[in-house]
Amino acid sequence: MKFIETRGNDGQHPEKVSFSEAILAPISSFGGIYSPESLPDLGETFLNEQLNSDYKTLARAVLTAFDIDIKAEIIDKALSLYDTFDDPSNPVPVVKVKDDLYVSELWHGPTRAFKDMALQPFGTVLSSIAQDRNEHYLILTATSGDTGPAALETFKNKANVQVACMYPDGGTSDVQRLQMVTEDAANLKVIGVKGDFDDTQNALKHLLASKAFKGTLKEKNILLSAANSVNFGRIIFQTIYHIHSYLELIRQNAIQMGEKVYLNVPSGNFGNALGSYYAMKMGLPVEKILIASNNNNILTKLINTGAYDLRDSSVIPTTSPAMDILKSSNIERIFFDLFGTERTKELMSQLDNDKHYQLSEAELIQIQSIFSADFCDDDEGKKYIKDAFSSGYLMDPHTATCFKAYDTCRDKQLATIVYSTAEWTKFSPVIANALTGEVDAHDIDALKSIAKEAGIEIPAIISGLFDKEITQKVIIEKDEIESEILSFL
Ligand SMILES: *Cc1c(COP(=O)(O)O)cnc(C)c1O
Cα(115) to centroid of ligand 1, in Å? Predict the structure, then answer.
């Protein structure tokens, strides 16, 4: 399979690239992103063949259908990372919560959030491509909490890759910070920055675009890459669990083969939702994809009105911070797929230049035939957390946004798969507050009180963090980032 650019080709970049090239050089003509030229057919024939496959077998079949230029033994090695999940025979449990609402739990990996689903295998794939090409990469990441730990975990001790991870000091939860600052592999550098997430994000963008920085790296024989969520190397792994979850519902006798379902996705940068879109396009029987947001409801507005408007808007901090986002990058791939390169280029340059665009009536109808959307504010989210807990299900604030969309976005009573993107342990103060009203400054107190309330243990992988040695102690000013990274290399 080949990959082409969402905003068309400028005659300077290659017209088509392979999967491994798309992973290594995610920047393309006119600022577009690489997308698959075509998609395989994974409709009923495929689904019937895979009906009784375990997760890794299904994953291998999906990747084979994509026909990517990665050797089978590397794919196997990458997929074996799912063996480190809680239940290697079923890394993604699908749990019935009520009526026709099922929750697909994407957080049973090492860092307890859904970023592991893609980043765990991606680390192996990227490191092996780098080794094959005899190249060395610096991966830069800026994180508000979940991507950083997942990226560090996947690249630790991997050959030909070093990672520099920036987080806003004081801007993540205790658990998220500890997951990063207790990592001690020699190829990892964690940098606390005095500032907020935007400061780290801006520093990242500045370095990725800086010719001088790239030049200095080149002298050291190091190439620059980013493991952000527009990288197709991550997206491809995010198509698999949608298919898996559908097959799980059949195996649980909740639906029959061919029956349509709703997929209900808590969305930020739209990687998870894009995976669901591709699954639907490849033939998964999906009635609609429900897009759940928090108070940063730019996606809700887009899907309901066709307008994307960044004028006078700024990010609102919420209790579901992994979805606090205004520029949702992967939407571009949907436009490319539905409307083609010319129109995508037009819409994206309107966004870059004027900070807004408006879809036509016909385009909006097309979008609405696939997606429905709603947003859930923090208070509503807490109510959903409390209600679900009363009926026996403990969930995090990102997952809670989907429960609102379940109530408001469906017009048919079809089985609905909610994607749960984080374990309760990652956002414990919000959950403790929802359950008991208490206001905890520290995660450890909230973790204890939720565990007590629910009659469960704090998972060892989380409680152990509080006793681990802190090995990454650097906290610096914004303007010291570049020199800190260079001294690490
Ligand atoms: C990253 C993340 C999201 C948003 O996923 P996108 O693919 O960026 O839309 C939602 N919930 C959690 C917990 C996350 O870490």
Answer: 7
